[in-house]
Amino acid sequence: MDRFFVLLGSNKLLWGQVCHLRELGYKVIVVAWNENPDITGDVYIRMDVKDAPGIIAELERRGYAGKVYGALSSIDLASPTVNAINGWCGNKTMPEKFDKVLSKNDMRDAWMAAGVFNRMSRMDDELPFEELCALSARMKLICKPDVAASSRGITILEKGRSPEELKTALTLARETSFNGRCLIEEFVEGEEFTVDMLGDAYGNVNCYGSSIQHHSLYARHNHVTVIHHWNSRKYDDATWNRIADFGIRCYKALGLHSMFGHLEIIMKEDGSFTPVEMGARSSGFICSHTVWKASGHDYLGDYIKMLHGGRVEPGNYMNGPDASMWFGYDIPSGSDSVKVTDITKFLDPRITVLYENHDGIKAGQHFGEYINDGDRDKFGYAILCGPREVLTYESIQEANERFLDDFLGRKNG
To answer: DSSP string of 65-104?
Structure first.
C-alpha cells in the first residue's frame, strides 16, 4: 500500500522536502491555495493551508484515511493544521496553545518568565506615543508585526526618528500583522543565528545545528538574510555548545514538544544571547538538507520517527566535520546582467552542490530594490556542503564576487 505525507505550502524552496520524503518512501500530497503552484508533489490539493477541518475532510473524501503518515509545513500559520493532521493520523502532537499560533508577544512573556529575555520590548497598545518618541531619542528601535512572516512589515528605526517616521513604522507593522498589533523593541546589535531543534513527547530536546545569518548588502531598510551558514569555523566548539544549550532553554520555556523548533537569536558584544522569535516548524532545505549535512543526522527522518512515538536523543549534534550553507543570490540594486552564469562555476571543487536553482539569474535583466525574503527568493539559490575549513563565508564571498563580475560584466568595465 502507498504511504503518503502531507506538505502544506507550495513554495519552490520546499522541493528539497518533496525529494527527501520520496527517498524515505512516501508519496507527497501538497496542499496550497496557489492556482499555479511551484511544486505539486505526487498529489496536489488546492485549499487554504489554515483550513484544518476542510483539509482533513478532503483527505477522507479522497480515500487517504489510514494512508497518511504525517504532515509538516514551513508556514507559521499552518502549524495548527500540521498539528490537526498529525492528530488525525494518530501521531504525536504539539501543545494545544500552538493551535492559536503563538505571537511574538506571547513568546516574549514566556521567555521573560524563564529568564532568557533581556531587552526592552513593549506592545504598541502598552506604549503611549509620547513615551515611544522619548525611547527613540535614547536608542535604536525595531518595530515589527506581532504575527507575520518573511521579514514583512518590519522597520529598523535609527535613534532620534521623527514622530512621522515612527507613525509610519507603526502603521506598516499593524497592517502587516494578522492580529493588527505590533511590538516595539530595543534594536540589539550583534551576530544573528538560527538554532534548529527537535523535541519529542517525553521531554527530550536536541539541537541539530545552528547557522550564522549573513545579511544582504543591497536590501534597503531591512535585514534580509542571503546566507545561512551551519557549522562555521568562525566560533569555537564551546561557543556552539553554549548556543545549543540556550536554544534548548528557549524551546522548553515555550512548552514546546513533539515538533521542530526554528529559533532566531542574537549574540551581543559581551557574548550573551537574546532570543528574537521561534517557529514551531522548520523551513525549506533547512529541514531536508542543510541541517542533516551539518549534523550528520537525518533531521526530517528523525521528525517522522518522533511523530510515530520515537525518542529524540537529548543534547546536541553540533561540531561535526562538515559545514553546510543556504546561499541566496544578492544582486546590487540598479544593476543589469549581461551573461548567463551562476555561483557554482566559481566554487572550490571540494564543495558539493546539493541542489541549485538559478531561474532568476538570466542575461538582460534589470535588478531593482528588494526588501524582504520573498523578493530575494525570486533570484535563486544554491544548497552547499563541504569541509568546515573549506566552506567558509569568506570563500563563498570571494566566489560570489567573481560570479558578479562575470554576470554583470564588471571585469570588462
So the answer is: TTTEEEEEES-GGGHHHHHHHHHHHT-----GGGGG---H
